[in-house]
Design a protein that fits this description.
The complex is a heterodimer of chains A (116) and B (113). With 116 residues, chain A is mainly β. In chain A, 0% of the residues lie in helices and 49% in strands. In chain A, the strands form 2 sheets. In chain A, strands 2, 4, 5, 6, 9, 10 and 11 form a 7-stranded mixed sheet that branches. Chain A has a 4-stranded antiparallel sheet with strand order 1-3-8-7, with no helix packed on it. In chain A, strand 7 (64-68) and strand 8 (74-78) form a beta hairpin. Chain B has no helices and 11 strands. Chain B has strands at 3-7, 10-14, 19-26, 30-38, 45-51, 56-59, 62-67, 72-77, 86-94, 101-103, 107-112. Chain B is globular, with a radius of gyration of 14 Å. Classes of the chains: A mainly beta (116), B mainly beta (113).
């Protein structure tokens, strides 16, 4: 158990809809990172939030957006869903020192999104 | 270009045998190197995290090595068990001022009885 919880665990949406995924970070951690993992592929970095500010972004379009709350939990929002957005979405929490990713990452079990 | 390459892409071994997975990286600056184990459909779990000055680190039957001069790492699994079947992913922290994480594609390991 990593102490990182994600919800929902599974969901099905149709193309064009919007989805919100949630992540509660481990106690004491100030940073949340989001990853997309397509079937059979490695995780792809979407973005990271450090103390409620975006602290790095991967090669994802603006319809992928996020938030981090004062308690360091986080949301990932995806608008105008496309079929290729079907994937496992992973959240990882960590405790950054000066916004540098030198510390351990603790992953949740993921949210499996299917877009029909 | 900052990259992490793993080999082999996949590996099948018999239960009880040992195996070694490889990771080569071209990441600068370098902060640390991690190995994660990921069961299918689950989140990755950290096995080891090694800094520049560490050559070897063990976690039970898993032993990671790091050669920072040649920019190579290996993960050795001793006396494999069926539960070791998973993807093993090498990740390097570095490459920019925020030391973002650069992920390898993983090695898919299958242990057969």
């Amino acid at each position: 158990e990593t102490g990182v919880t994600q919800s929902p665990t599974h969901l099905i949406k149709t193309r064009g809809q919007q989805v919100t995924l949630r992540c509660s970070s481990q106690s004491g951690h100030n940073t949340v990172s989001w990853y997309q993992q397509a079937l059979g592929q490695g995780p792809q970095f979407i973005f990271q939030y450090y103390r409620e500010e975006e602290n790095g972004r991967g090669n994802f379009p603006p319809r992928f957006s996020g938030l981090q709350f004062p308690n360091y939990s986080s949301e990932l929002n995806v608008n105008a869903l496309e079929l290729d957005d079907s994937a496992l979405y992973l959240c990882a929490s960590s405790s950054l020192a000066g916004a540098m990713n030198t510390g351990e990452l603790f992953f949740g079990e993921g949210s499996r999104l299917t877009v029909l | 270009k900052n990259q992490v390459e793993q080999s082999p892409q996949s590996l099948i071994i018999l239960e009880g045998k040992n195996c070694t997975l490889q990771c080569n990286y071209t990441v600068s600056p370098f902060s640390n190197l991690r190995w994660y184990k990921q069961d299918t459909g689950r989140g990755p779990v950290s096995l080891t995290i090694m800094t520049f000055s560490e050559n070897t680190k063990s976690n039970g039957r898993y032993t990671a090595t790091l050669d920072a001069d040649t920019k190579q790492s290996s993960l050795h699994i001793t006396a494999s068990q069926l539960s070791d079947s998973a993807s093993y992913i090498c990740v390097v922290s570095g490459g920019d001022s925020n030391y973002q994480l650069i992920w390898g594609a993983g090695t898919k390991l299958i242990i057969k009885p």
